[in-house]
Amino acid sequence: MTTPVDAVIDRLVRDIPDWPQAGVVFKDITPLLADPEGLATIVTGLADLGRRLAPDGVDIVVGIEARGFILAAPVALALGAGFVPVRKKGKLPAPTHEVSYTMEYGEATLEVHRDALPHGARVLVVDDVLATGGTVQATGELLARCGAHAAGVAVLLELGFLGGRARLGGVNLGALRLVD
Does the active-site annotation cover 141? Predict the structure, then answer.
């Protein structure tokens, strides 16, 4: 049986082969972001997933650059939580913590403001796609450096064939759609 979330993903997330490099099939969510009903369905789905992953609630929703924080900000509002962006290196103006990592098609460095997360904060991490797990793993390290902890990780799509979940150990992870 097709759920409303499945129907939205099928209709509004498109595959772009060989981008950003040969052999990678990029999951493009820009049509989803442009569709008000589809976007509302996905935000509601991610917020519901966040409630299941973190039944004691969350203080902050962290969104990972760039598509993750597009989705995370409205999820934060739906959960009555604050929002904190995790950005690529050099995008934040105040002192930061940083973590470098490898991903499906390269290397990157993520940063968060040192004072962005209160010590002990319960955090829901939101991203669009879980691939190899490097981005989520690096974000978890940033949370730990701030003294916060991931109560859960909610993603739109999990590319199961890349094994990212295994790289994350015991993280409480949920996806709106698993792609095998």
Answer: no
Residue tagged active-site, from 67, 87, 165, 177: 67
- Which domain range does residue 49 map to? 4-179
pTM beyond 0.90, yes or no: yes
DSSP annotation of 107: E
Task: Tell me if residue 104 is catalytic.
Answer: yes
Of 125, 121, 123, give the one whose Cα is nearest residue 46. Answer: 125
More confident residue, 103 or 83: 83
Q: How many domains, the chain?
A: 1
Going by C-alpha positions, the residue among 158, 126, 125 that lies closest to residue 27 is: 158
Secondary structure letter of residue 31 according to DSSP: H
Task: Using the CB atoms, write b or e for 12-46: b if 16+ within 10 Å.
Answer: bbeeeeeeeeeeeebbbbeebbeeeebbebbbebb
- Residue 50 confidence (pLDDT): 98
Q: Which of 87, 104, 111, 158 is catalytic?
A: 104
> What is the domain-level CATH number for residue 41?
3.40.50.2020
* pLDDT value of residue 105: 72
pLDDT tens-digit readout, 127-142: 999 999 999 999 999 9
Sign of torsion, CA 180 26 141 143? negative
